[in-house]
Design a protein that fits this description.
Blueprint (H helix, E strand, L loop, with lengths): L2 H9 L3 H18 L3 H23 L9 H16 L8 E5 L6 E3 L4 E5 H6 L3 H16 L2 H20 L4 H4 L4 H30 L5 H16 L4 H23 L13 H15 L1
Parallel strand pairs: 1-3
Antiparallel strand pairs: 2-3
Helix pairs in contact: 2-3, 2-7, 4-6, 6-9, 6-10, 7-9, 9-11, 10-11
Length: about 280
């Protein structure tokens, strides 16, 4: 994932803008103690609202690739993966006209792929692998879980500060605490999305080795990126751990069929269509 791109789209959004929606919902849920079904409805409404706000910031004029053929194909692959998942979430895949190798999801089921990613994938299995990872993030409700983690952290810190002189709070390094907690949480979330996404991919009949192939491309990009060497070194190390775990999981899966590496006709059509659209 290209960190400059992610920072521009998501990282620069303020904590206040993201937390204002979830804090009242959590407070209300604790106060009224609704049924699990009602909590699920509240969560989905919350994610839909947050996802819409973020999407409005991302989908600026000229950022989306609005070709019906390409969009129909990537969404068809996503639906095949989703149909074999354990999730009842709805997803919508969109393509950003960005040359970097990137894919990410928003709360509420919006998934974004970049033109750069589509151009570097070798076949439909790799496309399905990228989508299965993002579908797993949606199914795991990772955005909401991240917000809850931060809210709990802030609550613990406020409790610990009672009676402490205001001057003593400066040295606690709030931003570093948040960054550390988020980094650890994101690492676990990525590993969980890998495991769950691989299961989706396998059940949908795609080649599980495609998941490893896509993650290796991510690892190569991180290793070659000259920007922010310390951040990239950490990401490269985390990706190596994820690769090792994935390879172990794939090796334990029963072999269902022999997968052909040759791209399908639909994938080739998508590639050709993508080339035509980009040249316009």
């Amino acid at each position: 994932m290209d960190r400059r791109f992610v920072c521009t789209l998501l990282g620069c959004l303020s904590w206040a803008a993201l937390s204002t929606a979830i804090t009242p919902a959590i407070t209300a849920a604790q106060a009224s103690d609704p049924s699990l079904a009602q909590r699920d409805i509240n969560l989905r409404r919350l994610e839909e609202r947050a996802g819409l706000r973020l999407a409005l910031r991302i989908e600026q004029p000229g950022t989306l690739l609005e070709d019906p053929a390409v969009l129909a194909y990537v969404n068809r692959v996503a639906e095949r993966v989703l149909a074999k998942s354990d999730s009842d979430e709805k997803v919508m895949v969109k393509v950003l006209g960005y040359p970097g190798f990137n894919a990410f999801s928003l709360p509420g089921g919006r998934i974004y792929l970049t033109v750069g990613l589509l151009k570097r994938l070798a076949n439909e299995d790799e496309l399905a692998a990228a989508l299965s990872h993002e579908i797993a993030h949606v199914a795991n409700h990772d955005w909401a879980n991240q917000r809850i983690q931060l809210i709990l952290l802030r609550a613990r810190q406020r409790t610990g500060w009672r009676g402490m002189p205001s001057r003593g709070r400066v040295g606690l390094g709030l931003s570093r605490d948040y960054a550390s907690v988020l980094a650890a949480w994101r690492s676990r979330a990525e590993e969980q999305a890998d495991a769950r996404g691989l299961d989706y991919l396998y059940k949908a009949g795609y080649d599980p080795l495609a998941f490893i192939s896509v993650l290796k491309q991510v690892s190569t990009i991180e290793n070659q990126n000259p920007l922010w060497p310390q951040v990239n070194a950490q990401s490269y190390g985390e990706t190596a751990v994820r690769l090792a775990a994935l390879e172990n999981r794939v090796s334990s899966l029963p072999v269902r069929k022999k997968h052909h590496k040759k791209p399908s006709k639909d994938f080739v059509k998508m590639e050709r269509r993508l080339g035509v659209v980009i040249k316009r």
